[in-house]
């Protein structure tokens, strides 16, 4: 068992009762809310979840820059999926910055694969920032690095979208 490195285990303040499988025209049925609890605070769209945190900035150029930190695993991946579903409506431009992620599990990889598939059929332009081995290694081992627009820094990712 690996040690927990969670950075935000505060109280959960909101719950959803949306059924798993309820479709979204913008992102498709694969990115539907999972009904997981989440907390939303602050002017920049900060979301704290079990072992993961998302700090989103809606930039003046129309790009949503989401910085994910903590663990992206079985317990937090549904929260990332839910955030993507609720925050992004087509057409959208997203820079998903995973440089703060200290663990990327198969459930997190699944969310990234779903996002990649849905972006191909919707009007979502996105790029992933992954400069650490913690994120790059699982992407490379699964072949997702070949399918996902991966960049080593935010500036390059912003230019790509």
TrEMBL record:
<dbReference type="Pfam" id="PF01740">
    <property type="entry name" value="STAS"/>
</dbReference>
<feature type="compositionally biased region" description="Low complexity">
    <location>
        <begin position="26"/>
        <end position="37"/>
    </location>
</feature>
<feature type="region of interest" description="Disordered">
    <location>
        <begin position="1"/>
        <end position="49"/>
    </location>
</feature>
<feature type="domain" description="STAS">
    <location>
        <begin position="61"/>
        <end position="161"/>
    </location>
</feature>
<protein>
    <recommendedName>
        <fullName>Anti-sigma factor antagonist</fullName>
    </recommendedName>
</protein>
<dbReference type="InterPro" id="IPR002645">
    <property type="entry name" value="STAS_dom"/>
</dbReference>
<dbReference type="InterPro" id="IPR003658">
    <property type="entry name" value="Anti-sigma_ant"/>
</dbReference>
<comment type="similarity">
    <text>Belongs to the anti-sigma-factor antagonist family.</text>
</comment>
<dbReference type="InterPro" id="IPR036513">
    <property type="entry name" value="STAS_dom_sf"/>
</dbReference>
